[in-house]
Every structure is written in structure tokens, then in C-alpha cells.
Amino acid sequence: MLREKQNYSNGPGIKSGCQWRLLPHDFPRWPTVYWYFRKWRIDGTWERVNRALRERLRVRLKRDPQPSAGVVDSQSVKSTAVGGEERGYDGGKKVKGRKRHLLVDTEGFVLKAKIHSAKVMDYEGIKTLLRRANERFPRLRHLWLDAGYRGEDKGADWVEKALGWTVELVERPKKPAPEEVLMRWAREWAKEGVAVDWRKLLPPKGFVVLPRRWVVERTLSWIDQNRRMSKDYERLCASGEAFVYACMIRLMTRRLARV
């Protein structure tokens, strides 16, 4: 049965990105494949298979099947002209479409996926993502979040109060002082005969690998390697969530074959 589900997870063209009606001829008729995809989406089969493979892979890696810590982040993706529910505009990322909100373990395997409008702020979207999370993941006690989840009774504060978990905000390095102040400070030291390069005091520019944050960023990269996930092509948010699980099923099945 698991092999059958893996074949159907490859069937919708996750990797190649083909449409339902353009499935290869060696597959059943596209309405049949879509019927199974829809059925497994509604009854939660995609999420259950993802959970079963994740727990088995964690055991292979000599980890407890149930994680004790996780990382949360979101990704704004453009939508298409297909239409559908919950579309919006992310003013921070300048993206019109939806957000993929993920909870992953410290290995980067998806624990929970939630897709919603891009206009929903991260500190509000996490409430939907973590609904009943303490029941589904009884060992989970700690989360790493970015600065977008800061706020009173929102984001990190909500997690600590509602779920009783500890939260650590991982932020980019900040400037110790404005550049003008650093330049003035360097000139004063130069008068004392001490050469100081004030530019070395500034945080690095561009992409910076942040502790723990890179884990969920890598997971988003794994998902983006599938052409079907380059944008949000789905009418329903639930279909997009099912495809996230299908992507991870494909990845973890290959991992289990190698480990």
C-alpha cells in the first residue's frame, strides 16, 4: 500500500510539474489519479504517511520518533490565474499569493504544514499552524522562531502562554551603533595611535546562516526543488498542504532506501 501511495505521489507531476490532464500514459486515467489524491487529502492519508515515514527515518537516524524541539517559518509564494480561496498580498516580501507555514523537527522533516493567505502575518498564522500541536506532538517543548513572531499575545508570546513551550527568537546580528558613530569612534582611537577598522564592527551583509533557522530554510529549499511547488497552482489550500506532504514523502522514501 505504501508503494502504491508513493507511485501516486510521483503521479501528479510533483517533480516535473505537469498538469493532471498531462500525466504520462503509463499511469491510470487522470480522473482516477486525481480521485485518489483528493480522497487521501480529505481523509488525511498524506499527512499520516508523512508521519509514518518521518518516525521511521528518525529511528534509523537513532533519534526518538517524537521530536522534542522544532523550528517554524513561512514562505510567501506567488499564486496563478487559477483562482481559489485565501489569496492576499505580502507587503514585506512584495508577493501576491499564499504563505506556506511549516513546523519542522531539527532534522528538517515536516511535522505540520499550513497554507493561508500571504497577507496573514506570521505571528497570527502560527496560531493556525500549531492548533492542537501539543496533542499531536506530546514531546515537543521548544521552538526556534525568527523576529517576525515577536509581539504581545502573538507569535512567540502566544506559544509560551497557550502551549507552555519555551521559545527562542533567532535574529540577524544588529549594528552595535550607527555608522557615523562608529566612524567618529574610530577617529578618536586614531588620535591615540590605535588603528581601528570600524567596518569590521558591522554585521555581514547579504545572506547569513543563522543557528537553527537554516534547518527550516533548507526544508523550504527541498520543497522548491519540485517544479509543481515553484508557485501555488492550487485552488484549495488543503491541496497545497497535501503536495507539501507528498514532496516530503518522496524525499524521505529515497532517504530510507539509502540509510
What does this structure look like?
It contains 9 helices and 6 strands; from the N terminus they run H-H-H-E-E-E-E-H-H-E-H-E-H-H-H. By secondary structure, the chain is an alpha/beta fold.
CATH superfamily of the largest domain: Ribonuclease H-like superfamily/Ribonuclease H
What order do the helices and strands follow? HHHEEEEHHEHEHHH
CATH class division of the largest domain? Alpha Beta
Structural class: alpha/beta
Distance between the termini: 21 Å
> Using only CA atoms, what is the Rg?
22 Å
What portion of the residues fall into strands of 2 or more residues? 15-25%
Q: Please provide the count of β strands.
A: 6
CATH architecture of the largest domain: 2-Layer Sandwich
Q: Specify the overall morphology.
A: elongated
Topology overview:
Elements: H1 2-10, H2 30-42, H3 45-60, E1 69-78, E2 88-90, E3 95-105, E4 110-117, H4 122-129, H5 133-136, E5 142-145, H6 155-163, E6 166-169, H7 179-191, H8 213-224, H9 237-258
Parallel strand pairs: 1-5, 5-6
Antiparallel strand pairs: 1-3, 2-3, 3-4
Helix pairs in contact: 3-9, 4-6
